[in-house]
């Protein structure tokens, strides 16, 4: 089930350094939300705070609220491990587990959590997830081969298959295409179009054409200078951001007159 | 070609292309010059009363000078310097190989005499002259090293996991510091520690293989910690994050993702740490001592071990001195074979358990 995420007054810290300040945003279910902005402005940090991956780093912490379907994900009684089971993530660099086969990579989320499943069930789950990630036809004959033997684009789709195999509500993607060629990128963009029927997707991208192509909503992050916290400057429907943005900074960034 | 029309006569001498070409020495000329230098050195040495050492010293100096000067004259200064450094590096390598080759040769030469079935099947029980063997010492070494490994590997591995995955701040720094200190403990001190510990616990007359195993563990733990730590650090953080992002708890990530990814390196590290302690003599000498019969119980009584066996064969030969010396050399040879087998095992582990790329 796709879910809505409401973020209010979110401050994100690395130790004492305020990295992202005062984010208020509502992420719609069954749609793609793109986050754009210059390097170092806190897009990825913000994305990682949505499924509590941010706090994995030593000294990292968060203030404010991230509410998914009425539940504050940073509430005192919420286990970050459970949050991550509901909110999956795909990373910038493809990172299949090198010790596992393609098959085992797909069901890694279940197997690593010691979920008992019958062979027929896992077979079904692997096929469904790989089909969902548009990879089934390319790997169905070599499911027992190591995942690291695939090409970069295939590896990234394998990671997407792995993420959707645990049936999350939300899928976070941190520049999923930045290491890929245009053909693989196109495959993944098509895939996102299909996945948004079932999931809420948030994607960080440096590629503005990509944001314009795939997303319904776009958020623009920026920072005033080095050492200043990043802020969410504008959050609007993608057409509006790319045709008639509210903020001057957004227009400058999109038209390439940045800085 | 059209660009060649305005070339001067000097450039025409190198018609290959725009890259400057040099005169080169023929392929085997440097080696020949070097050997000629050595021969000259031998001659020089013969003038002052021949000896191998002076031949080598004169020869290396003369050979290096011959190669350098010829190459500098013919090929230019850059190539000459290159040849000079090649000569120096090769000489350094040759010097480093001398003790190794000499040691292996001597041990093989003197140890092969008794490398027979008797050596592996007989103990020294009631043997005062010829015959006898190191059956008891080989088994003793295997048992004590095994017990030491069983003690050290869990402690060392868990310490390394703590340092890499969990530790922060002062405690981590303190542990790292003390592990470094432990690395430098002299082996005799480790033996005295084990001796004192067991004397305090079980009284003055207590002797058992476990004392030696504890002493070896003190030497082995820092090696296991250090090697495991380095290997665990090599596991890419992305794999941990990928696991967390699937909703896998941290301890399960460590057990099921980090350790399997690093298993090859961990196995190699453990094997090399065993190789490091298997030949230790001093701590076993003062804790476990030596007996002539076979004792396979590491919790009661003295045990024989190969290094201590070799030591006593050498220092306290009985009536037939040569037989004792032969046994000492063979014990040394068997130890070297052990260590070499462990090193080969380490290589095999790292080859077979490394994550497969599938390409």
Task: Please give a structural write-up.
The complex is a heterodimer of chains A (259) and B (359). Chain A is an alpha/beta fold and 259 residues long. In chain A, 35% of the residues lie in helices and 25% in strands. Chain B is mainly alpha-helical and 359 residues long. In chain B, helix 2 runs antiparallel to helix 3 and helix 8 (187-202) packs across helix 9. The longest helix of chain B is centred in the N-terminal third of the chain and has 35 residues, at 77-111. Chain B is flat, with a radius of gyration of 29 Å. Chain B starts with 8 loop residues before the first helix and ends in a 7-residue tail after the last helix. Chain A binds chain B through residues 51, 53, 56, 58, 81-86, 88-89, 91, 93, 95-99, 108-109, 112-114, 145-150, 159, 162-163, 166, and chain B through 168, 236, 238-249, 252-253, 256-257, 260-261, 263, 355-359.
Could you tell me which chain pair has the largest interface and how many residues each side has? A-B, 34 and 26 residues
Rounded mean pLDDT of chain B is 88
Q: In percent terms, what proportion of residues of chain A is strand?
A: 25-35%
Averaged pLDDT of chain A, please? 89
**Molecular shape of chain A:** globular
| Contiguous runs where pLDDT drops below 50 for at least 5 residues of chain B | 1-14
Helix content of chain A: 25-40%
Question: Under the CATH scheme, which class of the largest domain in chain B?
Answer: Mainly Alpha
Span of the ends, CA to CA of chain A: 41 Å
Order of helices and strands of chain A: EEEHEEHEHHHHHEHEHEEHH
> How is the main sheet of chain A built?
6 strands, mixed
């Amino acid at each position: 089930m796709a879910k809505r995420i409401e973020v209010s007054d979110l401050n994100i810290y690395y130790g004492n350094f305020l990295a992202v300040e005062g984010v208020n945003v509502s992420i719609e279910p069954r749609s793609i939300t793109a986050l754009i902005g210059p390097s170092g402005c806190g897009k990825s940090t913000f994305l990682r705070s949505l499924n509590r991956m941010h706090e994995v780093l030593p000294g990292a912490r968060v203030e404010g609220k991230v509410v998914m379907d009425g539940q504050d994900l940073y509430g005192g009684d919420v286990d970050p491990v459970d949050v991550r089971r509901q909110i999956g993530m795909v990373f910038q660099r493809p990172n299949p587990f090198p010790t596992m086969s393609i098959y085992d990579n797909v069901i890694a989320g279940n197997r690593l959590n010691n979920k008992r499943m019958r062979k027929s069930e896992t077979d079904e789950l692997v096929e469904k997830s790989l089909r969902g990630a548009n990879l089934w036809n390319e790997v169905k004959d070599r499911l027992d081969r190591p995942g690291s033997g695939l090409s970069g684009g295939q590896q990234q789709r394998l990671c997407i298959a792995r993420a959707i195999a645990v049936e999350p509500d939300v899928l976070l993607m941190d520049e999923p295409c930045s290491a890929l060629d245009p053909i693989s990128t196109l495959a993944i963009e098509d895939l996102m179009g299909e996945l948004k029927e079932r999931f809420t997707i948030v994607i960080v991208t440096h590629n503005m054409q990509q944001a314009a192509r795939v997303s319904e909503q776009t958020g623009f992050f920026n920072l005033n200078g080095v050492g200043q916290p990043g802020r969410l400057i504008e959050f609007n429907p993608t057409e509006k951001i790319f045709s008639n943005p509210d903020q001057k900074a957004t227009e400058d960034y999109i038209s390439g007159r940045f800085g | 070609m059209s660009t060649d029309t305005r070339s001067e006569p000097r450039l025409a001498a190198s018609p290959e292309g725009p890259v400057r070409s040099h005169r080169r020495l023929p392929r085997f000329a440097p080696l020949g010059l070097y050997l000629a230098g050595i021969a000259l050195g031998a001659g020089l040495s013969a003038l002052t009363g021949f000896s191998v050492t002076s031949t080598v010293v004169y020869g290396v100096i003369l050979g290096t000078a011959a190669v350098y000067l010829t190459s500098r004259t013919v090929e230019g200064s850059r190539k000459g310097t290159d040849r000079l450094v090649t000569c120096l590096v090769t000489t350094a390598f040759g010097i480093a190989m001398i003790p190794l080759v000499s040691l292996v040769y001597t041990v093989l030469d003197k140890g092969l005499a008794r490398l027979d079935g008797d050596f592996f099947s007989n103990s020294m029980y009631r043997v005062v002259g010829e015959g006898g063997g190191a059956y008891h010492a080989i088994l003793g070494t295997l048992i004590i090293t095994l017990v030491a490994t069983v003690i050290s590997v869990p402690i060392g591995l868990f310490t390394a996991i703590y340092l890499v995955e969990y530790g922060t701040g002062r405690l981590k720094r303190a542990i790292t510091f003390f592990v470094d200190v432990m690395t430098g403990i002299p082996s005799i001190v480790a033996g005295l520690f084990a001796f004192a510990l067991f004397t305090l616990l079980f009284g003055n007359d207590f002797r058992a293989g476990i004392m030696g195993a504890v002493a070896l563990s003190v030497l082995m733990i820092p090696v296991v910690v250090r090697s495991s730590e380095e290997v665990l650090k090599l596991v890419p953080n992305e794999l941990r994050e990928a696991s967390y992002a699937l909703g896998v708890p941290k301890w399960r990530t460590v057990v099921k993702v980090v350790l399997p990814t690093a298993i090859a390196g961990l196995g190699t590290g453990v094997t090399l740490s065993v190789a490091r302690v298997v030949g230790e003599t001093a701590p076993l000498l003062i804790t476990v001592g030596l007996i002539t019969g076979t004792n396979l119980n590491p919790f009661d009584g003295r045990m024989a071990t190969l290094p201590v066996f070799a030591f006593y064969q050498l220092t306290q030969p009985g009536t037939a001195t040569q037989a004792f010396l032969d046994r000492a050399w063979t014990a040394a040879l068997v130890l070297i074979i052990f260590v070499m087998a462990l090193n080969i095992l380490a290589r095999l582990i790292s080859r077979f358990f490394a994550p497969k790329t599938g390409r």
